[in-house]
Specification:
The C terminus is likely disordered. It is built from four helices and 16 strands. By secondary structure, the protein is mostly beta strands. The chain has one domain.
């Protein structure tokens, strides 16, 4: 038994530069913001047209259980150790006080002052007036309600078919904290991870980046969160923005998290 029983170190594909560094900065800011169960170990690195980072997925193996006398044991192989199951590391801060935040600029994680600016032209209706997400019945796979689209995400783990041990360790993580593992390419595994965004406000529904701008005038809030793109629908149970399952008025219903372009749909569920 080892540290991989409590958490797992992996290489994550963060973003692609196919749409320019500006779009990649938004994607990287979004991913690096989800720190509840992701600990990022170093700076982003570029390899060809992609950005990568080393991270620890703070999700234990589903076979890890408390052992006798305060230790831990493996339900799959019968191993035991004196050290008890370890809790996740504390979430890395992204809100640094006042108007200072940790975001990604030109492929690097940096601290920047982000000031309020003009409201975006195509603002999501969730923030146009009041915030209906505050009382929405949406939920993630662990049945926790509220702000589901800010508490789970799709990640891409670098893992080739030859890395059978790593793939086995990924697939054995505790569900539903990490689930829906599938091979997405010859060098990556896709998975769904429940890991809340560190840019959430104290009520755990609003976003501290909303309405703030970068120094070049672009919105600080990642573009896949702050606009209302057209395209494929990716759904959470209970989202207030979805089409009604039955006819009639605006009763509580299943719906979409965000209408994302088909190329980005795999990044938000």
């Amino acid at each position: 038994m080892g540290g991989h029983c409590d958490a797992l170190r992996v290489t994550l594909r963060v973003a692609t530069l196919d749409n320019g560094s500006g779009s990649a900065d938004h994607e990287a800011t979004w991913l690096l913001g989800h720190t509840e169960r992701l600990t990022f170990l170093d700076d982003l690195r570029r390899d060809g047209r992609d950005l990568y980072t080393e991270a620890v997925v703070q999700v234990p193996c589903r076979h890890l259980a408390p052992g006798p006398k305060g230790g831990a044991r493996c339900l799959a192989h019968g191993y035991a150790r004196a050290l008890p199951p370890q809790p996740p590391d504390p979430a890395e801060p992204r809100q640094l006080g006042g108007d200072r935040f940790r975001i990604v600029v030109e492929g690097r994680a940096v601290t920047r002052q982000l000031l309020p600016g003009p409201r975006p032209r195509r603002e999501l209706p969730v923030h146009a007036l009041s915030n209906p997400c505050a009382t929405a019945p949406c939920r993630t796979a662990d049945h926790r309600r509220g702000a589901a689209c800010c508490r789970d995400l799709q990640i891409e783990i670098v893992c080739t078919p030859k890395q059978r041990l790593l793939e086995g360790l990924v697939r054995s993580r505790k569900r539903p904290l990490l689930c829906k593992v599938e091979r997405t390419s010859t060098f990556t595994l896709g998975a769904e991870l429940i890991s809340a965004c560190s840019f959430l406000t104290e009520d755990r529904v609003g976003c501290v980046l909303h309405g703030r701008n970068r120094s070049d005038g672009r919105p600080a809030k990642p573009d896949l969160c702050s606009e209302w793109p057209e395209g494929a629908e990716v759904m959470h149970p209970g989202c207030v923005f979805g089409p009604a399952r039955t006819g009639g008025g605006p009763e509580r219903r299943q719906g979409v998290v965000c209408k994302l372009p088909a190329a980005r749909a795999s990044q938000r569920r």
